[in-house]
Amino acid sequence: MARHGNSRHVKRLAASGYSKPARKASTYLVKPNPGRHSLEDSVALLALVRDKFGIAANAAEARKIIGRGMVEVNGAKVTEPRYPVGFGDTITLAGSGESYSIGIARHGVIGVEKLEGKKGSRMLKVIGRYLARGGSQMLRLHDGSVMKDGKGAGVNDTVVLSGNGIEKVLKFEEGAQCLVISGTHAAERGSIAEIKKGNASSPATVTVQSGSGQFKTLVGNVMVVGA
Length: 227
Description:
With 227 residues, the protein is mostly beta strands. It is built from two helices and 19 strands.
């Protein structure tokens, strides 16, 4: 019988542009597990260790490094090679103590920034709210995580995390500094000039004022990064 289970690899030519794989290096690329980030917006930890950090020559070496607990994602040791990593995550290499922030680069591909010893706060976009059993207000964040709201964050706001709690909330409003996280203008920064609500026939949009002029994009493509 044919195998119908979840595939563990994806062809490089069909892989998401976010992962920016070397298309002709080999036929297949390790596929991240489902959950947390979407498949289109994530990279398997193994591929990150091998291809972006360059601390492993091949997949076997990367599996050993990860399996020994030498890689932390957002402060927690991860031993699963296919663990999905994406925008907003922080990676720490236990051997060297170096930390990296996973961001977005031009054309919507993964960006990796070395933190140079500084401890960066994590910023996550709120994509939903719901009322949990017991009356607790919960937030759904863009990395797939859920956390209790204690600061009055709304949908499209950004929460700045310190440890396991919310340090502050950056409101999605006109005048706020923003980063475009997907779409044609990915990686561009600017300020929100206008927010236009959507309706049944057209989606909600944002007009962004950047150094090169104004442009319009979908609300879902924009994340607030400063007041």
